[in-house]
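Q: Please design a sequence for this.
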């Protein structure tokens, strides 16, 4: 807030471009937006309009990016395999792990599907980074500090069930099966790290 006109546009642009997006991407402080008031007597109407506009925008975004069950993801993978698409090898691996349970990893894949949807839903700015990676390999989260830091910061305050109960998604379960590199608590072996990296690479394509 300032009473000065000089330089106001620059401050507004800085707040809107450099402050608001990181706060919203973090996900732990609610939904923020910028509203600039030029005249005090317009403040009430302007803030009311801004609130309605941003609430409507958020609802629209949530409806477009609604959380989906694992069946939707497996269907997309099957379609990719059937048409021998760019991601057919990655999809086949996930189908074996998720449906075929080749390595007793069905639960790992389920949690990865839920968490990756929610993560990319609040970090759309990272989708292009993930899409630029090799389509035949799991996405290297530790090799991409921006994605890794965003994932760990976003995941840290989250816990418990999310989505429909029938989906079986649970942040605590996910944290227990992945290592600290992905924001989890697992020690020793990679646990569900590999499944998440594969699902994240595919989810960046399927949700775009």
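A: Design:
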């Amino acid at each position: 807030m300032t009473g000065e006109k000089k330089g106001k546009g620059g401050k507004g642009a800085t707040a809107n471009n450099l402050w608001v997006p990181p706060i919203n991407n973090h996900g732990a402080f609610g939904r923020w937006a910028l509203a600039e008031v030029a005249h005090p007597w317009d403040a009430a109407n302007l803030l009311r309009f801004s609130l309605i506009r941003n609430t409507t925008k958020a609802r629209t975004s949530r409806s477009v990016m609604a959380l989906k069950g694992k069946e939707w993801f497996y269907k997309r993978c099957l379609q990719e395999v059937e048409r021998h698409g760019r991601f057919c090898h990655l999809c086949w691996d996930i189908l074996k792990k998720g449906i075929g349970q080749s390595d007793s990893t069905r639960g790992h894949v389920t949690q990865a599907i839920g968490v990756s949807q929610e993560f990319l839903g609040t970090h759309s700015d990272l989708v292009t980074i993930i899409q630029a990676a090799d389509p035949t390999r799991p996405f290297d989260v530790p090799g991409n500090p921006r994605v890794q830091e965003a994932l760990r910061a976003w995941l840290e305050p989250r816990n418990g069930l999310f989505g429909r109960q029938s989906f079986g998604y649970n942040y605590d379960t996910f944290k227990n099966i992945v290592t600290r590199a992905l924001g989890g608590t697992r020690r020793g072996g990679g646990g569900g790290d590999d499944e998440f990296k594969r699902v994240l690479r595919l989810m960046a394509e399927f949700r775009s």
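Q: Thanks. Anything notable?
A: The first helix runs from residue 8 to 26. The two ends are 37 Å apart (CA to CA).
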